[in-house]
């Protein structure tokens, strides 16, 4: 299994579970127990909707701001891809992506955008640096000239097997 290593016993969690379980609110969170449920269960957990105003994210003791809006989700996705070289190698063969399930009225994050960001960062030789230095990553994605690169803007249907294979591997 590929993904994000969360301890030395090689346990994994999905990007979605990492994202949902890391949310912090005025009245609770992070809800790290969501790391080990299904992605659907994590997305629909009542605590996500009933814990007050959203504050940001806490992932294994590290705090992440809520701005830019998609930065944390994209960082998780970039991390998972970087930990899965066979998937990453397949992904960089594409010039752009689309996500037919993405609904901007219901969600802020888009797997196609995160995949395009990975390709763009890989092409620029930046992927290792952005995963190592969060401040550098945030500054880079805030840069308007970066967000208009062809790799980030183009569209092409992505392989749906990628989503099913992609999980995070991070040490505790």
Walk me through what this model shows.
This protein has 172 residues and is mainly alpha-helical. The protein has 11 helices and 6 strands. The strands form 2 sheets. A 3-stranded antiparallel beta sheet has the order 1-2-6. A 3-stranded antiparallel beta sheet has the order 3-4-5. The chain is globular, with a radius of gyration of 15 Å.
Unreliably modeled segments? 150-161
- Share of residues in helices: 40-55%
Global geometry: globular
How far the N terminus sits from the C terminus, by CA atoms, comes to 18 Å
Rg is 15 Å
Report the sheet-strand fraction.
Answer: 5-15%
For the largest sheet, list the strands in their spatial order: 1-2-6
* Count of helical stretches: 11
- Sketch the major β-sheet: 3 strands, antiparallel
Assembly state here?
single chain
Total number of strands: 6
Mean pLDDT: 82
Structural class: mainly alpha
**SSE order in H/E notation?**
EEHEHHEEHHHHHHHHE
Summarize the structure.
The chain has 172 residues and is mainly alpha-helical.
Write the topology of this structure.
Blueprint: E1 4-5, E2 12-14, H1 15-21, E3 23-25, H2 39-44, H3 46-49, E4 54-59, E5 62-64, H4 71-82, H5 85-91, H6 111-123, H7 127-132, H8 134-142, H9 144-147, H10 150-153, H11 161-165, E6 167-168
Antiparallel strand pairs: 1-2, 2-6, 3-4, 4-5
Helix pairs in contact: 1-4, 4-6
Keywords for this entry:
about 170 residues; mainly alpha; 3-stranded antiparallel β-sheet; globular
